[in-house]
Structures are given as structure tokens and as C-alpha cells.
Design goal:
Helix content: 25-40%
CATH architecture of the largest domain: Alpha-Beta Horseshoe
Number of domains: 3
Shape: globular
Strand order of the largest sheet: 2-1-3-4-5-6
Number of helices: 14
Largest sheet: 6 strands, parallel
Oligomer: single chain
CATH superfamily of the largest domain: tm_1862 like domain
Bound molecules: 5'-deoxyadenosine, iron/sulfur cluster
Radius of gyration: 25 Å
């Protein structure tokens, strides 16, 4: 694909780690074709917006960003404006892009990422073919226009009707293996272990945008992690919408064997050179005793779990189709504490799910105080078209949602601050990511329990696991000094 060689790209990513990793794959694919990363958006020949549809404000931010690309396209007709990700799996969004954003050149879905370089190639070919046609007879409609209109219309037609490339599959049976990725950090990497989701929580759009659950083969995952460690990676984060329901069919050996998620962790724990294993996200309904046991047995498995609770009220959990109760969730937390007393726990909480009463919300507050989360992502319930909860009639008024949200955040912050202060005077092993952007002379990294730590130091510490004495505990991070 000679047309791609030498082109500069810029990727704008919204949403979760899955999307971040997809963007790394897109970057890897483009680099293989001889492209390089642009210094910034304005410097790029190709801009890709990787979208998220989990909440409404992500939609809004996407359309805002898309608007900004119009000028860039007008200034440079050779420019390629590309959009992908979860939003493109929704018919009404794609229709809106087609109608209102004629300068978009390439639209691709979450199941078509590996085809992106071919799609770009197709775009460039269609453009040269179109330019060729223009030299001939010309178009009646265009000729009747004034010069100014002609330029604009020619440009719009070129991008909108004649050359746009679209590829969006609803789902895909087979997993595409062997895709490259341009990692954000040399020393740590995301590794997808499965794709899609079968759970259909009533508020969530993901099962509609990412398709059904599919697990990668264990041997493919193990090979990828071994290759990564050979390339300097010390920490992997295993990714999936619900890693606890991983079911990988192994074809190695005499007969087919099905691996569960814990089997995978135990096998990864044996890989020489790998030092830390993390994973996200865990659905509480599928968190097995065997996996809890892995926190006790596997030295490389970080003592940290992200365990989204969503609500502390069993009544609301049932309406959300979460398939566990408050009591079952608390029992899991107790089992985790028993297996690994130092474990840190984070969560996701939705405030203002339809029908949530003050009493339900207080159940959430009391659960938060009982678990004492180290950190939490809190969300205002947001209606997602096509999901069951969007049709529920008992929607919570916005001001009630906001007021509960603030009360929840206050409770969570107070707990985080108290827990982080308790680290003062302890020594934590920190994997340093690199220099802090805000604070020159400071580097930051993560403890085994995923606490963010800032310390004095320079780039030479990046990628190293170092002992750090904690000197300060803040709400969202710790501060410390390198122990000699
Ligand atoms: N409204 C608000 N939050 C949502 N999430 C998913 N869907 C919605 C929605 N419609 C949150 C859940 C999930 C996280 C990734 O996003 O808490 O765990
Ligand atoms: Fe969405 Fe529920 Fe699947 Fe998570 S488990 S992706 S919240 S449907």
C-alpha cells in the first residue's frame, strides 16, 4: 500500500481500556504500512476518532470533535477523516454522520479494525479515480455553479458521495489473531483475552456494540505474553468486558481442553520475566472461588481488583439484571479479604438508575462504607437508546441524580483519603511509568495495589520496579521518596 507510506496519523480515543488498546492496534497497523505518529492533530494526514457510546456525554464530545475536523479537511483535501469504535455500531449514529458530516472519509466498526489500512487504500484509489473523471466531461450540475460554489461542491462531493469507504459488521464469529500494536509504554501492555459481552445489564449499550462473548485461545494469549516479555514488558493487564467468564478452548495436546480465567492466571504466573498481572473487568456474578484462590497463590497477580458493584440495593441490582444481590457481593469482598488481606478494591457505581429511591441510594452509601473502596468511578445514569432501561418510565429527575452523585463522591473521597493516609511510613514497590507531565523532576508509577505514586526522580527510573517510602497520602494519589 504505497499510498500510505510516509503519511502521518493522529488518533483521538474516547472511552475504556478496550478502546485504548484498539487504538494501539490501529497505530500498529498503520506503522506496519510505513506511517508515523503525527506531532499533533493539525500535523496529521489521517485523523482517527475512536468513539465510545457508554454514556451520553461521550456522544456529545464525539460530535464536537468531529466538527473540528471540517476546517482541517477544507484546508487540505488530501486529508483523511476517519471514525470508528462503539458509536459506529449504532445505526442511528452512522446515519447522522452520513447526513450531517459529509467530510468524513472512512467509517469502520469495532469488528473491522484489521481492515482499516485496506479501507484507507481504497479511499486514496477512489480519490485518484474521481480526480481522473473530473478531467473529462465534467458534471452538469457543478458547471452551472459560481466558482466559489464549485470548489466547495466539488470538495464535498468528493468526500461525501463518491469516495467514502464504510465497513461495519454487526459481529464476527472468528477472532482475528496476530494484529500488531504500538504500545503506549515499553514496560507494560494490555492484552485482550476476550471480546464482547453476553450479560445485557439493562442500562448498558456494550452487548449491542461489541457483540457476543468470544474468548481467545489460551495458547495465543500465552504466546503473546511471552513475546511481550521478550520485548521488555513486565506488566500485563488482561482485558475483557467480563474476564471472569473467559472460556478458552485449547487445541494444544491430545484433546480439546477448556480453560477458565483462573487457569489462565495460573499459567501466566509461570512466565519468566513477567512480573505483574492485572485484569479488568470482573463481573461479580462470575467471580469464582478458584480465582479468589489465585490471589493467594499467584505471586505475580497484583493484589488489586476492579469489581463494579453498580448499586448497593438488591432491588436496583435486580432491575439492572446484574444477577447478584448486595449480600452476595459483600460475601465476595469478604472472601477476597480473607485470601489477600492487603487487596485494594475499586468499583463502578451508577447513580440515579430508573426507580432508584432515597432508600436504595442509602443502601449504596452504606455498602461503600462497608467495603471502603480504594477508588471508584461514579456515573450519572444516562439513557442509552436501544437498552431496556431507557424505556423505563420511572426515570430519576436530573437534580436528584446530581445531588445523590455529590453525596456519593464526598463519601468515597473521604474513604480514599483516609485509606491513602494509612500508607504513610510504609514501603511500596512501584513500577515507574515515566516523568510526570505536570511536575518536572517528578516521576509517577503504580504500586502493586494500583495506587498512583509521585516521587522525585528522572526518566532513568522508567520501567523499573523500585522501593518507595510513602510520605504523603492524598485523595487520588500517594507521594513518596525512593528508598536507597
Ligand atoms: N449510564 C451510566 N453509566 C453507565 N455505565 C454503563 N452504562 C451506563 C449508563 N447507561 C457505567 C457502568 C459500567 C461503566 C463502564 O460505565 O458503571 O461499569
Ligand atoms: Fe455492560 Fe453489563 Fe456487559 Fe459490563 S457486564 S459490558 S455493564 S452489559
Amino acid at each position: 500500500m504505497t499510498e500510505l507510506r510516509g503519511k502521518k496519523y493522529h488518533i483521538i480515543t474516547f472511552g475504556c481500556q478496550m478502546n485504548e488498546h484498539d487504538s494501539e492496534t490501529i497505530a500498529g497497523l498503520l506503522q506496519e504500512e510505513g506511517c508515523s505518529q503525527a506531532r499533533n492533530r493539525m500535523d496529521a494526514d489521517i485523523v482517527i476518532i475512536n468513539t465510545c457510546s457508554v454514556r451520553e456525554n461521550a456522544d456529545k464530545r464525539f460530535f464536537g470533535t468531529l466538527g473540528q475536523l471540517k476546517k482541517q479537511k477544507a484546508a487540505n483535501p488530501a486529508f483523511a477523516a476517519c471514525v470508528c469504535g462503539c458509536m459506529m455500531q449504532q445505526e442511528h449514529i452512522v446515519t447522522q454522520v452520513r447526513r450531517q458530516y459529509p467530510w468524513v472519509d472512512v467509517i469502520f466498526g469495532t469488528h473491522n479494525i484489521h481492515e482499516f489500512p485496506q479501507m484507507l487504500d481504497q479511499l486514496y484509489q477512489a480519490r485518484s479515480a474521481f480526480a481522473g473523471e473530473e478531467d473529462g466531461e465534467g458534471n452538469e450540475d457543478l458547471i452551472r455553479m459560481s466558482d466559489h460554489d464549485y470548489t466547495r461542491a466539488k470538495h464535498e462531493i468528493r468526500s461525501a458521495r463518491d469516495t467514502r469507504v464504510e465497513r461495519i459488521y454487526e459481529d464476527r464469529k472468528e477472532i482475528v489473531e496476530g494484529l500488531p500494536a504500538k504500545r503506549l509504554f515499553p514496560h507494560k501492555s494490555f492484552v485482550n483475552i476476550m471480546y464482547g459481552c453476553n450479560n445485557f445489564c439493562t442500562y448498558c449499550i456494550v452487548p449491542y456494540t461489541r457483540g457476543r462473548e468470544k474468548s481467545r485461545r489460551p495458547e495465543d494469549i500465552l504466546r503473546e505474553v511471552k513475546d511481550l516479555t521478550a520485548d521488555g514488558v513486565r506488566e500485563v493487564t488482561l482485558l475483557g468486558q467480563n474476564v471472569n467468564s473467559y472460556k478458552g478452548v485449547s487445541l494444544a495436546g491430545e484433546e480439546e481442553k477448556v480453560w477458565d480465567f483462573a487457569d489462565l492466571i495460573y499459567a501466566l504466573d509461570e512466565i519468566p520475566g513477567l512480573e505483574r498481572i492485572r485484569f479488568m473487568t470482573s463481573h461479580p456474578k462470575d467471580l469464582s472461588e478458584k480465582l479468589i484462590g489465585a490471589f493467594r497463590d499467584c505471586g505475580k497477580l497484583c493484589r488489586y481488583i476492579h469489581l463494579p458493584v453498580q448499586s448497593g440495593s438488591s432491588r436496583i441490582l435486580a432491575k439492572m439484571n446484574r444477577r447478584y444481590t448486595r449480600e452476595q457481593y459483600l460475601d465476595l469482598v469478604k472472601a477476597l479479604w480473607q485470601a489477600a488481606p492487603e487487596i485494594t478494591i475499586s468499583t463502578d457505581i451508577i447513580v440515579g438508575f430508573p426507580g432508584e429511591t432515597e432508600e436504595d441510594f442509602e443502601d449504596t452509601l452504606s455498602l461503600v462504607r462497608e467495603v471502603e473502596y480504594d477508588s471508584a468511578f461514579t456515573f450519572l445514569y444516562s439513557k442509552r437508546k436501544g437498552t431496556p432501561a431507557a424505556e423505563y418510565e420511572d426515570q430519576v429527575p436530573e437534580e436528584v441524580k446530581h445531588q445523590r452523585f455529590n453525596r456519593l463522591v464526598d463519601a468515597l473521597n473521604e474513604i480514599s483519603l483516609r485509606k491513602n493516609a494509612a500508607y504513610i511510613g510504609t514501603t511500596q514497590m512501584v513500577l515507574v511509568d515515566g516523568a510526570s507531565k505536570k511536575d518536572p523532576g517528578t516521576v509517577s508509577g503504580r504500586t502493586d495495589g494500583f495506587k498512583l505514586v509521585d516521587l522525585e526522580g528522572d526518566e532513568s527510573l522508567a520501567g523499573k520496579i523500585v522501593p518507595v517510602e510513602i510520605t504523603e497520602g492524598r485523595t487520588f494519589s500517594l507521594r513518596g521518596r525512593l528508598k536507597k
